[in-house]
Amino acid sequence: MHIIDTHCDALLKLQLAKRGRFFQQEPLHFTDSEVLDTNFKRLQAGGVKVQFFAIFLYPDVPSEEKWQHALEQVDLFYTEVLGKNPAMKHIKKWEDIDRLKDDEIGAVLTLEGADAFGNDLMKLRQLYRLGVLSIGLTWNNANLCADGAGEPRGGGLTLLGKEVVQLNNEHRVFTDVSHLSVKGFWEVMELADYPMASHSNARALRDHPRNLDDEQAKAMFAKNGLIDVVFCLDFIKEDTSRVEISDLIKHIDHFCGLGGVKQIGIGSDFDGIVSHIHDLENASKFQNLINELQKHYSEDEVAGFAYRNFLEHRPGLRQGAMDDGGQFERKSEVGIWQKRG
């Protein structure tokens, strides 16, 4: 079964390796490096049809270097992810997903934290032009747009942050709430046409600032937003000595109980996590999750979690379906999609 994964940090790993800051070896190769949870071979093996790639900057990057660091990751996306793997196809607009061929994998650029552009909206517009289709205003820290989940003061959006949300709406770009403060989350709910939690779990099951409480989850579902469950062990359960796929499924169960069965997806956070769920250690193991989900849910519901819910809630495309061959056909002028054959 196809997978759409809305969050990974492979670009950061590629950049750190290139700069010699993290891995004591030659630059990584996206095609098959064992260091990458989401290398091309593993995406193929796991049935991933669309992979989101985050641009992420550590908070300690000096302000005057942040834009350069972001552009380095964009360049690695173009040269290493796309340039050396012809089957990886850049998704520059949401309709591009529908044109993927059987052997192709879509690649989506996202931004995790507005630090990259500071208060320069010209830089933000350039990111839109480069193909960024989802923007999270913050990581855990505060910046010029908003407070993150780890900022003690718990402030909301600044005027700049609100303007960014409005620009996301105009460009059919997701506003990602996964790292926002609680106050920032509720202000995004008031403004965003396309909210998404790209990698968050249920706070009722694991009381962690990065997870969403029940009222937040219900608000997301009411706003037609997506919540994509994350594989970070600390967001799943308190005892992380061994975490099973069944522990992750409890979070899906909880969100389903809140009315979100049609709005749950997957945001692995591969390459951004250092410890892994048992039998879900990298992208090649995605079908283990599918197999476990099929023990508890109908085939249609599992397909929803895996890819269809995302397709039906893409900005500007409210209904859709992908077949296992990755081919699509427009059924009518109202945006409904059906399988070929």
List the helices and strands and how they pair.
Elements: E1 3-5, H1 10-19, H2 40-46, E2 48-56, H3 66-82, E3 88-90, E4 105-112, H4 121-130, E5 132-136, H5 159-170, E6 174-176, H6 182-191, E7 195-197, H7 214-222, E8 226-229, H8 245-257, E9 264-266, H9 286-293, H10 299-312, E10 329-330, E11 337-338
Parallel strand pairs: 1-2, 2-4, 3-4, 4-5, 5-6, 6-7, 7-8, 8-9
Antiparallel strand pairs: 10-11
Number of helices: 10
Number of strands: 11
Shape: globular
- Please identify which CATH superfamily we are dealing with: Metal-dependent hydrolases
Give the strand content. 5-15%
Pfam families: Peptidase_M19
Keywords: Dipeptidase, Hydrolase, Protease
Protein name: Dipeptidase
EC number: 3.4.13.19
Structural features, described:
The chain has helices at residues 10-19, 40-46, 66-82, 121-130, 159-170, 182-191, 214-222, 245-257, 286-293, 299-312, and strands spanning 3-5, 48-56, 88-90, 105-112, 132-136, 174-176, 195-197, 226-229, 264-266, 329-330, 337-338. By secondary structure, it is of the alpha/beta class. The chain has a single domain, classed as Metal-dependent hydrolases (TIM Barrel), CATH 3.20.20.140. Strands 1, 2, 3, 4, 5, 6, 7, 8 and 9 form a nine-stranded parallel sheet that branches. Strands 10-11 form a two-stranded antiparallel ribbon. Helix 1 crosses helix 3. Mean pLDDT is 92; it is low at 318-341.
